[in-house]
Amino acid sequence: MNWTNTLTITDLVIIVLYFVFIVYAGLRYRKTSDSESYFLAGRSMTWPVIGFSMFAASISSSTLIGQAGDAYSTGIAVFNYNLMSIFVMIIFAWFFLPFYIKSRIFTLPEFLERRFDVRSRYYFSGITILINIFLDAAGSLYAAALVMKLVFPEVSLTTLAVIFAVIVAIYTIPGGLSAAIRVDLIQGIILTIGAIALTWTLAEKGGAAYVAEQFNQGVMMKLVRPLDDPSVPWLGMILGIPILGFFFWGNNQQLVQRALTAKSIDEGRKGVLLVGLLTLITLFIIIIPGVMAQKFFPGLEKPDMVYPSLVIEMMPVGMVGFLLAALVAALTSSISGLLNSVATLFTMDFYLKMKKNVSSKEQVLVGRIVSAVVLIIAVAWAPQIGEKFGSLLKYYQEMLSMLAPPIVSVFFLGIFWKRATSQGAFYGLIGGALLGMTNLVFKIYFGYSIFGDIHFLLTVPIYLAWSMLIMLVISYLTPAPDYKIVKPYIWTKADFDEETVALQKLPFYKNYRKLSYMLIALCLIVLLVFA
């Protein structure tokens, strides 16, 4: 489709002004006086800022472009990734986030070193950097370029990716996480409002009637699918998605780093619960519009273009420019967070290990250099995604299904099992990675999985179980860790019960557990309605 003639001068002016405003806001809120300000915004954020920032950062290429496209092709089953992740967020807020914040860590790999040893830290940090560059940053640049390709069809994807990289670099590299998180707050609010407006417009133009029609026939509007369903089989929904969801929300430096900016554990927890509520809304503002698009654009060859096509074709003058800008800005927001994430990981986990007595000023400088290098690599890799992988969502999910389970297993056993040893953790990570690499080689060179013809979601718990088994066996074969050293990083029922007593004195709106129960109730209602 060529939409150049659809856009008016008004829309183009709005797009330009929006990006000028975003760059200005990013530069205005920058904090670079020391490493804690640059990498963690001074640990001073409140729950609304954390919530909207995490939401905007989570609206990556795989969410906004990939999920709407998948909904167009297979229905709302793709929302299971979001729905099950909300339950995961609650577990993360209850049990994991307090340890992260109390430890005053800069990176999640740093937590693994404190609980186990430096080997696990290096492995996890290295894997996270690779994921952030080749899956997340490159994917978001590719998606943003795809959207603007609709507006400027004569411009190459590579050129567009370079333009967006420069825009992100202008405010992120100088300003650090403080700049990124403030911009994310603005864009999270604007994107939510714009997406609601799009859904409302589509519904009034016949989309609501079409969805109601689909609701009563077939599986397009059903969340729970048969075991042989090619999109999301019910067993994969229960066993596979929560593991991937925990990696995305509980082990993802880009998102967790925003929660680490909280001025208290309570602020961080409530910020995560706000993200859960906003994620629930994505069913109505991202997924269902993808289904509605079948009515307006039947037979699209590239489902990834569904959401931007809806924006450009269905919205009135002015709103098109506003929503397109918000759409692309959300994708660039995820890149800004990724840049700071990789900069933090490299600086804290590698540079400070190689060079001692590094000043805060030098740390910030190294972070800026790393951010620039990451952008260059992501720009180079972004065009390859469309050539080598058909769908953005398929590309992201397949790779994550192999990389995530070993890491999730180490964090769970590390926090909930005091007997877990550093040897067990390291070899659990390596063993899980080797199994994933073996399967990847078989898929590339032989065209099939070592697990047979099963959905990739069903392979996720196999990777997890394998990594846990290795960790359990080796932990029992090696000396137990010194409990006095690892105690600050181990969950105990006594601490949980003590907190329960303290929470009973608070009103329900200040009690994160009661707020969690309300969020769970909303999720169950959605699940029952669309089951």
Characterize the structure shown.
With 531 residues, this protein is mostly helical. Helix content is 77%, strand content 0%. It is built from 21 helices and no strands. Helix 8 crosses helix 14. The longest helix has 59 residues. It is globular. The two termini are 35 Å apart. The N terminus is likely disordered.
* End-to-end separation: 35 Å
Q: What sequence of helices (H) and strands (E) makes up the elements?
A: HHHHHHHHHHHHHHHHHHHHH
Tally of alpha and pi helices: 21
Broad shape:
globular
Q: Taking all residues together, what is the mean pLDDT?
A: 85
What structural class do helix, strand and pairing data support? mainly alpha
Radius of gyration: 22 Å
The stretches of 5 or more residues where confidence is low (pLDDT under 50) are 1-5
Oligomer: single chain
Number of beta-strand segments = 0
Please outline the major beta sheet.
none
Helix content: over 70%
Strand content: under 5%
Explain the layout of strands and helices:
Elements: H1 9-28, H2 35-40, H3 47-58, H4 61-74, H5 80-103, H6 108-115, H7 118-151, H8 157-215, H9 234-239, H10 241-250, H11 253-259, H12 265-296, H13 306-314, H14 319-354, H15 360-388, H16 392-416, H17 422-446, H18 456-477, H19 483-486, H20 493-503, H21 512-529
Short structural description:
With 531 residues, the protein is mainly alpha-helical. 77% of the residues lie in helices and 0% in strands.
Which terms would index this structure?
mainly alpha; 531 residues; 21 helices; globular; disordered N terminus; 0% strand
